[in-house]
Amino acid sequence: MKVLITGGAGFIGHHTAIYLKSLGYDVICLDNLSRSSDEALRVLRSENIKLLVGDVTNYKQLDSVVSSASPDVIVHAAALISVEESMERPEEYVNNNVIGTLNVVRSAARHRISRLIYVSSAAVYGDPIKLPIDENHPTSPKSPYGLSKLFGEEVVKLYCRAYDLSSITLRLFNVYGPRQQLSQYSGVILKFIRSVRENLPLTIYGSGEQSRDFIHVIDVCRAVELSMMSPYVNEVYNVGSGKPISINELANLILNISGCKVGTVYMPPRSGDIIHSYADMSKANAYLGFKPTITIEEGIKELLEVR
Fold first, then answer.
1. Nearest to 225 by CA among 61, 115, 109
2. Is residue 120 domain-shared with residue 186, that is, in the same domain?
3. What are the tens digits of pLDDT across the range 195-228?
4. Is the CA virtual torsion 2, 3, 8, 14 positive or negative?
5. How far is residue 249's CA from residue 251's CA, in Å, rounded to a whole number?
6. Which tens digits make up the pLDDT trace of 250-267?
7. How far apart, in whole angstroms, are the C-alpha atoms of residue 111 and residue 134?
């Protein structure tokens, strides 16, 4: 089976490419390289995974790739992904995440691709009105990023109805793992690991009692592969651990595992932060056969060992 991964040089994309190739899939990556890391590119080269340079916002370019590659499955992971950045540059998020998704789905429908896997985000939910969050939870994004991913979901649904396209949408919670790129918008785990390595206190915004659902990137790759095979199509599935952990607990876990004595410092809460969020994983378990396999403790130990 041939798989085309858009955003294939990004964090989730390149891990998915490597994972699927290890299972025997024929994998091709497409990426504009605007957010790729040297490390991700190096690993893709070392695995002899074909990488095409192109942009999903350019329909003619994208359609040419889909036509020549003739994949059985498209995994659409190309996106801008920062909540904070999206508040500063909303037009870029609409262009990349909405128009880019529209182009991918149009091309998939035109070439009668067997299945599209759309990588969405738990950011579509906004502030939870109930916990855990299941897939029927109301969607009320708090950022242009979350809104762009929700628009993308609606585009996918529209084309599935209109062109009999089979798709699965995966709403990812807080993904972490090796080779995640460090930037001012990086996730809290990556920032805590960096602080430990630099022997600096871990910075916590607000009380630290806010909770999140962290899922290892390899478990995300497993969810993608299961979605490629599942008969339960044109559905939305959460991908998380289903186990909340507070930011205080996370900080203490990292300090305890590392043996670092730097402690924590507290800063004022950031506006727009969701207080509690974690996934109801019963639907993915029942219909995809998906259960997370990597605990947060195992994931943290892995990251602390990577230099």
1. 115
2. no
3. 999 999 999 999 999 999 999 999 999 999 999 9
4. negative
5. 5
6. 999 999 999 999 999 999
7. 33
* 131 and 71 assigned to the same domain: yes
Q: What's the Rg (C-alpha) of the chain?
A: 19
DSSP-based three-state secondary structure for 207: coil
Phi, psi dihedral angles at 158 (to 5 degrees): -60, -50
Task: Evaluate whether 117 touches 73 at the Cβ level (below 8 Å).
Answer: yes
Top-confidence residue, 108 or 274? 108
27 and 56, same domain (yes or no): yes
Q: Are residues 170 and 264 in the same domain?
A: no
Residue 141 DSSP code: -
Among 274, 299, 75, which Cα is nearest to 176's?
299
Please identify which of the residues 93, 118, 125, 145 carries the catalytic annotation: 145
Are 116 and 198 members of one domain?
Answer: no
pLDDT at 306: 77
Does the pTM of the predicted model rise above 0.85? yes
What's the distance, Cα to Cα, between the start and end of the chain in Å? 35
147 and 232 belong to one structural domain: yes
- Stated as kind and residue range, the H or E segment containing 76 is strand 73-76
Region at 48 (left for phi over 0; alpha for psi -120 to 50; beta for the rest): left
Query: What's the domain count of the chain?
Result: 2
Judge if 222 and 83 occupy the same domain.
yes
Please check whether residues 158 and 9 belong to one and the same domain: yes
Concerning whether 93 is annotated as a catalytic residue, the answer is no
Find the helix or strand (DSSP H, E) in which 93 lies. helix 90-93
